[in-house]
């Protein structure tokens, strides 16, 4: 397991950017689980990843809409990645794995062009396939963040 501690929000965003650019599509969607307390930085991590991959619109927390799908640009001059979409899901308000069904989760998982960032995977753990990466963010007393990556 790799681990990185960063002091500032700017460093945190750089780390998220580095991570986003390190991913490449596989034979199904790439699922990234984002765990951590409320306010740890799961949404901030997703925002920075999205910006790095070329999303220009504002990325908001999908706590109320549950899911947001952003088309990723493949413009000249945008190196970015080979993913077609970034899917941001916040499972905070879900109670069980089957609550993912209305979000079309199973279909989304079949498409290798999808990069899925899922906040609060614990809420829907019983329905989740093995993720590509499990990220856990913890806040230290001085507001630094430790970001842990596990397969
Ligand atoms: N070093 C840091 N790393 C990440 N976030 C930070 C840091 N310092 C302050 N923050 C702030 O912490 C908050 C994290 O909130 P958010 O990403 O919405 O958390 P979550 O989605 O995990 O509930 C943001 O407002 C962000 O600006
Ligand atoms: Mg959040």
Describe this structure in words.
It contains 3 helices and 7 strands; from the N terminus they run E-H-E-H-E-E-H-E-E-E. The protein has 151 residues and is an alpha/beta fold. The chain has a single domain, classed as Rossmann fold (3-Layer(aba) Sandwich). The protein has a 7-stranded mixed sheet. The mean pLDDT is 94. Bound molecules: adenosine-5'-diphosphate and magnesium ion (MG). Magnesium ion binds next to helix 2.
List strands and helices in order, with pairings:
Layout: E1 2-6, H1 9-22, E2 30-35, H2 42-52, E3 67-71, E4 85-90, H3 105-110, E5 114-119, E6 133-139, E7 145-150
Parallel strand pairs: 2-5, 2-6, 4-5
Antiparallel strand pairs: 1-7, 3-4, 6-7
Helix pairs in contact: 1-2
Adenosine-5'-diphosphate is lined by residues 6, 8-9, 12, 36, 38-44, 61, 119, 143, 145.
Ligands: adenosine-5'-diphosphate, magnesium ion
Strand order within the widest beta sheet: 1-7-6-2-5-4-3
**C-alpha Rg, in Å?**
15 Å
Q: Quaternary arrangement of the chains shown?
A: single chain
> How does the helix and strand content classify structurally?
alpha/beta
Percentage beta strand: 25-35%
> How many domains would you count in the coordinates?
1
Cα end-to-end separation: 7 Å
Percent helix range:
10-25%
| CATH architectural grouping | 3-Layer(aba) Sandwich
- Specify the CATH homologous superfamily: P-loop containing nucleotide triphosphate hydrolases
Give me the strand/helix succession: EHEHEEHEEE
Number of helices: 3
Shape call? globular
The CATH class assignment is Alpha Beta
What is the averaged pLDDT score? 94
Q: How many strands, what sense, and barrel or not for the largest sheet?
A: 7 strands, mixed
């Amino acid at each position: 397991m790799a681990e990185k501690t960063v002091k500032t929000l700017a460093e945190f965003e750089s780390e998220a950017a580095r991570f986003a650019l390190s991913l490449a599509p596989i034979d199904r969607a790439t699922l990234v689980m984002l765990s951590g307390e409320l306010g740890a930085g799961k949404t901030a991590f997703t925002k920075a990843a999205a910006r790095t991959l070329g999303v220009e619109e504002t990325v908001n927390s999908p706590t109320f809409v549950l899911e947001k799908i952003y088309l990723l640009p493949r413009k000249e001059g945008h190196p970015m990645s080979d993913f077609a979409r970034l899917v941001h899901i916040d499972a905070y308000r879900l109670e069980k794995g089957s609550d993912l069904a209305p979000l079309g989760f199973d279909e989304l998982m079949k498409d290798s062009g999808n990069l899925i960032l899922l906040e609060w995977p614990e809420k829907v753990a019983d329905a989740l396939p093995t993720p590509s990466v499990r990220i856990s963010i913890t806040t230290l007393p001085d507001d630094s963040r430790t970001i842990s990556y596990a397969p």
